């Protein structure tokens, strides 16, 4: 998407094992995909191992069905000395068409770690987009 939602970081298809007892895609699966995408972005930007220390502001404005494609977009909202906060959005595309809708959105905060798993300062350029 070109409307400022960030980098496409994951594209995955919802499978029957990703459904909740009511037949919809499980919100926990959506959160997991958003976290994986955010992690990928942080690692690429910093070149460091990073772990989630916070997850906030989750909303699930739409629904997706088994077979629908989930596209996860991520963008850096804030970079601290050792942390990075990433806004993520999950956009579903219907399995047999081109219709799309937002199905999940949330923020993750990561801390970058050194080789001894201690917080490590992030280089100032880590906040810039890869052009």
Helix/strand-derived category reads alpha+beta
Mean pLDDT, as a whole number?
A: 92
How much is the radius of gyration in Å?
15 Å
* CATH arch. level architecture: Roll
Q: Briefly, what CATH class?
A: Alpha Beta
Q: Which shape, going by the Cα principal axes? A: elongated
| End-to-end distance | 16 Å
Number of strands: 5
CATH topology: Thiol Ester Dehydrase, Chain A
User: Helix segment count?
Assistant: 1
How are the strands of the largest sheet arranged? Answer: 1-3-4-5-2
How many domains? Answer: 1
| Order of helix and strand elements from N to C terminus | EHEEEE
Task: Enumerate the spans where pLDDT stays under 50 for 5 or more consecutive residues.
Answer: none
Provide the β-strand percentage band: 35-45%
User: What percentage of residues falls in helices of 4 or more residues?
Assistant: 10-25%
Largest sheet: 5 strands, antiparallel
CATH superfamily name? Answer: Hotdog Thioesterase
């Amino acid at each position: 998407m070109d409307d400022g939602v960030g980098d496409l970081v994951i594209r995955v298809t919802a499978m029957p094992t990703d459904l909740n007892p009511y037949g919809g895609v499980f919100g926990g699966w959506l959160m997991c995909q958003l976290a994986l995408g955010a992690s990928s972005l942080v690692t690429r930007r910093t070149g460091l191992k990073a772990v989630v220390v916070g997850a906030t502001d989750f909303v699930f404005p739409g629904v997706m069905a088994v077979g629908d494609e989930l596209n996860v977009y991520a963008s850096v909202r804030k970079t601290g000395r050792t942390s990075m906060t990433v806004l993520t959005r999950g956009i579903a595309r219907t399995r047999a068409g081109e219709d799309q809708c937002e199905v999940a959105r949330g923020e993750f905060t990561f801390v970058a770690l050194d080789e001894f798993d201690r917080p490590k300062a992030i280089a100032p350029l880590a906040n810039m987009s890869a052009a």
